[in-house]
Write a structure and sequence with these properties.
The protein has helices at about 15-30, 45-50, 60-65, 70-75, 90-100, 110-115, 130-140, 160-170, 190-205, 215-220, 230, 235-255; strands spanning about 5, 35-40, 75, 85, 120-125, 145-150, 175-185. The chain has about 260 residues and is an alpha/beta fold. The structure holds adenosine-5'-diphosphate (ADP) and magnesium ion (MG).
């Protein structure tokens, strides 16, 4: 059984990719065979985990979505034990447009994952939109992890995401569940950050994870070294937080 977790929020810059990379890393480190699917045409998870453009000759998620290659064929090893990645390049944006007129366009990711064996967990890094790609991710996933940046307007637009999840639950994927809301870039020194944190808790009772991710420069530096925080600076505040969050997620998913 593979558990599929989509890291989603249609807002950009809230910490989705940072969360997907680092949670995937710590899941793998805990011994779970983990696949990180980069599903954002920006390809930040691909480069952030240390994959170079020159390594993509086996194909990317574009090929998987167009069904010209199987997911298992494009998967690459990372430098980290138990962690593999399904890479993406900007071409995925064109692929998405193309998909719009193709059959089974909503269930292609689900199908691709379902015929791929050997993974305990699949983590999907979603694009910053409620697009066809995100819908594919929500149909493929058992759980959604929602990173929310503790900034003004943090909750804006989330109603729309919850509405989309409800529709998908009703029509395509009855077991889709919001696993947790993860406050990101929390700055304990600012009252705004604290206020928004409290507001998020009020808005999602019982759903906010106990661990919040602090604003931490080491987390922002790590991707340019192609490394998860647990490798780049494993004693940083950011590393400790993502390690703790992963533990909570494992418990919530019952893995
Ligand atoms: N906790 C954090 N502290 C400091 N910078 C962060 C943190 N989380 C993410 N960042 C940085 O903020 C930017 C946006 O994060 P990213 O994970 O790419 O968001 P998204 O995938 O939602 O667009 C990136 O430059 C990233 O390195
Ligand atoms: Mg991203």
């Amino acid at each position: 059984m593979t558990t599929v977790l989509a890291v989603t929020n249609q807002k950009g810059g809230v910490g989705k990719t940072t969360t997907a990379i680092n949670i995937a890393y710590y899941l793998a480190k805990s011994g779970r065979k983990t696949l990180l699917i980069d599903f954002d045409p920006q390809g930040n998870a691909t480069s952030g985990i240390g994959i170079q453009k020159s390594e993509l000759e086996h194909g990317t998620m574009s090929d998987v979505m167009l069904e010209t290659r199987q997911l298992s064929h494009i998967i690459l090893d990372t430098k980290y034990k138990n962690l593999q990645v399904a890479p993406t390049i900007s071409q995925l944006a064109n692929t998405e447009a193309e998909l719009g007129s193709l059959s089974r366009r909503f269930t292609r990711l689900k199908n691709a994952i379902s015929i791929t064996s050997g993974f305990d967990v699949v983590v999907i890094d979603c694009p910053p939109s409620l697009s066809l790609l995100t819908v594919n991710a929500l149909i493929a996933a058992r759980y959604v992890l929602l990173p929310v940046q503790t900034e003004f307007y943090a909750l804006e637009g989330l109603g729309q995401l919850l509405e989309t999840m409800k529709l998908i639950r009703k029509n395509m994927n009855p077991t889709l569940d919001l696993l947790g809301v993860l406050p990101t870039m929390v700055d304990s020194r600012t009252t705004l950050s604290q206020q928004v944190y409290d507001e998020i808790k009020k808005h999602f009772p019982g759903k906010v994870l106990n661990t919040a991710i602090p604003r931490n420069i080491r987390l922002a530096e790590a991707p340019s070294h192609g490394a998860p925080i647990g490798v780049y600076d494993r004693f940083s505040k950011g590393a400790r937080a993502y390690k703790a969050v992963t533990k909570e997620i494992i418990e919530r998913m019952g893995l």
